[in-house]
Amino acid sequence: MSRIVLRNLVKSYPGGDRRATDEISLEVADGEFVVLVGPSGCGKTTLLRMVAGLETPDSGSVHIGDTDVTSLSARDRRVSMVFQSYAIFPHMKVRQNIGFGLMMRKVPRPEIDRRVADAAAMLDLSDYLDRFPSQLSGGQRQRVAVARAIVVDAGVLLMDEPLSNLDALLRLQFRAELKRIVHQIGTTTLYVTHDQAEAMSLGDRVAVMRDGRVAQIGGPLEVYDSPADRFVGSFLGAPPMNFFPALVSDGPALSVGALSIPAPSSLARFAGRTVLVGVRAEKLAVSTDAADGFLPATVEVVEPTGASVLLTVRLGDHELKVQAPPTFDTRPEASVWLRADPSTMRFYDPETSLALTV
Amino acid sequence: MLEAGPIEYTLQGFVAMKTARRPLLLIAPSLVFLTALFAWPLIFGIGQAFTGTGGPTAAHFQRMLDDPYFWPAARNTALLIVVLIPLQFAFALTMALLLRERPRFSGFYFYLWVVPLAISDLAAGLVWLAVFTDRGYLNSVLSSLGFDGYSFLSHENPASMFIAVVIAELWRATSLVLVIIVAGLQGIPKDYDEAAEVFGASYWQRLRHVILPQLRPSLQVALILRTILALETFAVAQALTGRNMPLLVGETYQWYDFLQNPSVAAAIALMILTVSLLAAAGYLRLMRDQTGSPR
Amino acid sequence: MRRFALQVFCVAISLFMAAPIYLITLAAFSSRESLNEFPLPLVPTDPSTETLSGFLSSTGVIAGGVNSLMVGLNTVVLALLIGLPAGYAVARYAFRGRQPYQLFLLLTRALPIVVLSVPLARIFLTTGLYDTTYAVTLLHTALALPTTVLITAAVFVAVSPEQEEAAQIFGASPVQAFVRIVMPQALPGIAAAAVFTFVMSWNEVLGAAILTLNQRTLPAQVLSTLSFSPLAYRFAGGFALVVPALLFIAIMRKYLLNMWGTTLK
């Protein structure tokens, strides 16, 4: 088990117009599960590959445990990895595939057999050890890739979008299983995905990346509830966080068009300025009747999802997503009234999109 | 070797971990070898063609032009290309479209139709010699049907001689075009064709407006490749007609082997090279166009 | 009806493609005497190996066959030795000069054999290589090399770099990763490139005829004796040259489309 410490990692590709990673510093504690999440091209895979030793940073350093591994090749870093394409070897049977890392490290034969059997049992592969990968389903290949990665007992486990090639149902099943397995073996894990739901569900901490930088890192709920900027709020969560501008008036209160709603008292120091209000769809209370402190809005689209009803409503010039209880009865063009608890509202600078400390 | 963005990305990533010198070390032997066996002889050959006993001279080219066989050889070579290649493309396209309909035994048909791919032009000439020679199989069939025999390969019948060479080349070298077209057809998603069918296009309309335009890159490549190769044709004609139907490359061989005059041979070879390079220039231009296109 | 018409066309083309092969086989297995008959029978009436054995016992034929075999095998080895690393480099590295290098390969493919052969004969005369199988091997390697590089590059591209990376993550050195992971997967494709090279060498006539005098390869031997040999000899020669082609296509059927598909790039 070892922690990972990344210091000021810079990497640019020849011909690329900007840095793939721009001075990234990050620490993953011993035994921690950190997920790197972001849109494609944000540098998350590059960062992972620098930890693996598959890329050399232009500057900065990578420490694993207490060792500076920046100049070590991949094979000398004692890391383990699950690849997006699985990269299991088609000309080897499942048994040899899982045991490959142990064989390369010259582990004695009986021990290889024992550890391969254990890993296979953990991943329900015991009956498939003598098959070739071409005789397996996609989900089983994925299991082989994971088994191969956990059997070597490396200090650090790296995963590059391991679930992205599975179909939706299988992905959901295996996600939970993966979480259980990683928890069980307790290895320090760095995990890359573009799927925000996956990031939230798996990580002890989630690092949201954008344009080669870490926009925010924190526990899943922290990142979800208090996005550090507008990008993080829109990227995490389905539907994304609602944003609309409002003028802070004395009281303090927020003026949205001609309407006014109460604001947290700490907002008083922004009086006279326009701020961007961010609020999650499920934090908006919705009612078919007018009431005090409620804002009138017009329903545009109604989408029942079973567990709830997702409404697209128009509030003045802004479109908002609202999550209503499944029994909520409305239809397009109907009027509804919205209210947000001041404590659930987040405030952002309209120019920099960064969170305002209130 | 153009791939979609993400693959290019991994490729670059993979490169970054290696030293920049390694790929150059890996291609160095092939560069040295090819330079030694292509560039050196090429320069040497130019020297041979332009140098006489007394220094630089155009005398070898003069001798080449004065030779009574040269102009017929040039004419035959040009005629062969002009007649053969359109026929070959029509034939190959027909075969490819038939296979595309997935007839029963299509695997067997494909095997049979591409067998000549591995047959040399000398062998093809000998095979068709058995058919066209005076007492060969074609005349045997004709005579058993009650017709008179015909000297197809006699120098008195230049037309039938030419046709025999065209048929033998059609038989031998169409398979290369076929393979390129079949590979090209496989690269065209069926969706386009089906979409056109849904919107009411007939088979010929689909062929004309959907399939052929998308096949264009393959057809162009095949065209230039075949043109270069057709310029080099000689053993088929040699085996079928001897020197009755001279071709340019055959003349080079004559000058070199029987007339023992490497300089004139080199002069003709340079002629062929010039024409080939023009075709190759077209080939490379085409490659650039493809590289530049977003698809 | 449509299906029927389709089959009629296919059968007609097949007859055109197969008939000459049938006839040359028939001729090669007819006795010398029956080849002089007219009209020639279209079915085997008097099967005999006389024509073929007569051909094989002619001067220079067996020796030519051996030479062809030697040249072919040596060409395969040399072309792979030089071409394989280059193919790997083209497949795996985005190095500066990769594009020009590929253009250079394509350009060499457009050079007619005859342009090289005549000056090479002169060069080989002065270096003492003239009239040896080595001379022909060198020429054939040069001819096969661009294709070898392009085919092997396509073969290596098909093995994802992630597999090599995975091997290295799990403790393999770059050489181990290549030998244990890439080679086993590339082997069928490399074998295809080898067979392709061999057949190219086996079929090449002009260069071999120009570069040798006594150490003829089989096609060069047949070509040089063409004008004064009897018909039976020529038929048997044609048959001997066609047989490897049938085997070649049977072995390579699976790879044909890939091969010509990829060399186009």
Q: Which helices and strands, and how do they pair?
A:
The complex is a heterotrimer of chains A (358), B (295) and C (265).
Chain A: E1 4-11, E2 21-28, E3 33-37, H1 44-52, E4 59-64, E5 67-68, E6 79-82, H2 94-104, H3 109-122, H4 138-151, E7 156-160, H5 168-185, E8 188-193, H6 196-202, E9 205-210, E10 213-218, H7 220-225, H8 230-235, E11 242-249, E12 253-256, E13 259-262, E14 274-279, E15 284-287, E16 295-304, E17 309-315, E18 318-324, E19 335-340, E20 346-348
Parallel strand pairs in A: 3-8, 3-9, 6-7, 7-8
Antiparallel strand pairs in A: 1-2, 1-4, 4-5, 9-10, 11-12, 11-14, 12-13, 14-20, 15-19, 16-17, 16-19, 17-18
Chain B: H1 5-16, H2 21-50, E1 51-52, E2 55-56, H3 59-66, H4 70-100, H5 106-114, H6 121-132, H7 137-144, H8 158-186, H9 190-198, H10 203-231, H11 235-241, H12 248-258, H13 262-292
Antiparallel strand pairs in B: 1-2
Helix pairs in contact in B: 2-13, 3-13, 4-8, 4-10, 6-8, 6-11, 8-10, 8-11, 9-10, 10-13, 12-13
Chain C: H1 2-28, H2 32-35, H3 50-56, H4 61-92, H5 98-109, H6 113-127, H7 133-158, H8 161-169, H9 174-203, H10 206-211, H11 218-224, H12 231-263
Brief rundown of the structure:
The complex is a heterotrimer of chains A (358), B (295) and C (265). Chain A is an alpha+beta fold and 358 residues long. Chain A has helices spanning 44-52, 94-104, 109-122, 138-151, 168-185, 196-202, 220-225, 230-235, and strands spanning 4-11, 21-28, 33-37, 59-64, 67-68, 79-82, 156-160, 188-193, 205-210, 213-218, 242-249, 253-256, 259-262, 274-279, 284-287, 295-304, 309-315, 318-324, 335-340, 346-348.
